[in-house]
Design brief:
With 242 residues, the protein is of the alpha+beta class. It has five helices and 18 strands.
Length: 242
């Protein structure tokens, strides 16, 4: 689970090229599904058209970067009718007023949480008076351009801890697919990096050298980098030669 602010501005890394292809500029929201369907890309060379990555093409969202398999994951939103329609709806979520179906003002959205594996919106953070609170997306009826409409009983189900959103997901048996997804991600990382040569020494956060420059990466080397943390793996993927 990630906050929207933990994704916005993140560098987007192509694993196969070992290069940054841009930064996350904004979200394209699908109001019918209640999900983030695309991440638009900020890149100084792309000024005329809107470039984006379908969320389903995202390999992982870590502490330091968003990763995709290659720059072929990038699409032109103007060439995809459904995507273009979603862009034109201009659903922003953050900054929207929250109102019950009977017209009672509840607050304003300051943030939202999304499943980093599926893009599903799990909950929203509301400013209600002087305090902030969390509401599960289960109570959201409509994501509109300026207003989010929620069920009448929503104010009685505010949460204090975002971890409670995950507990709701666990009850729907979504925890196991997430674990399976992580195993698939690790296997994919091994497949993409195995046999490539590290072009520089790679260090863990504690200063320990994890990979020595010139090493032809084995499965054990890559797993060691994975265990050292997401930042170490991203650093490794950006400094390999064929």
């Amino acid at each position: 689970m990630k906050k929207s602010t933990q994704i916005l501005g993140q560098p987007i890394i192509s694993i196969s090229e070992g290069a940054e292809i841009g930064k996350v500029k904004s979200f394209v929201i699908n109001p019918d599904k209640g999900s983030v369907d695309f991440l638009t890309i900020e890149h100084e060379d792309w000024q005329v058209t809107v470039k984006a990555i379908p969320f389903k093409k995202v390999v992982g969202i870590g502490e330091y970067a968003v990763t995709v398999e290659s720059d072929r994951a990038v699409i032109d939103l103007n060439e995809i009718p459904i995507a273009d329609q979603l862009v034109n709806k201009k659903i922003r979520i953050v900054g929207a007023k929250v109102m019950t179906r009977k017209g009672e003002l509840v607050g304003e959205v300051k943030e939202f949480y999304a499943d980093e594996n599926t893009g599903k919106i799990l909950g929203i953070v509301l400013q209600t008076g002087e305090s902030e609170t969390i509401l599960s997306a289960d109570f959201v009826m409509t994501y509109g351009k300026d207003i989010v409409v929620v069920e009448e009983e929503a104010p009685g189900h505010f949460l204090d801890d975002p971890e409670e959103l995950l507990k709701k997901e666990e009850k729907e048996d979504l925890e196991q697919p997430g674990e399976a997804g992580m195993e698939a991600l690790r296997a994919k990382q091994v497949e993409l990096l195995k046999g490539k040569k590290a072009s520089k020494d790679i260090y863990a956060g504690n200063g320990e050298r994890v990979i020595t420059a010139g090493t032809v990466l084995s499965e054990e080397d890559i797993k060691r980098a994975q265990e050292a943390g997401p930042g170490v793996l991203v650093e490794l993927s950006m400094h390999v030669d064929e």
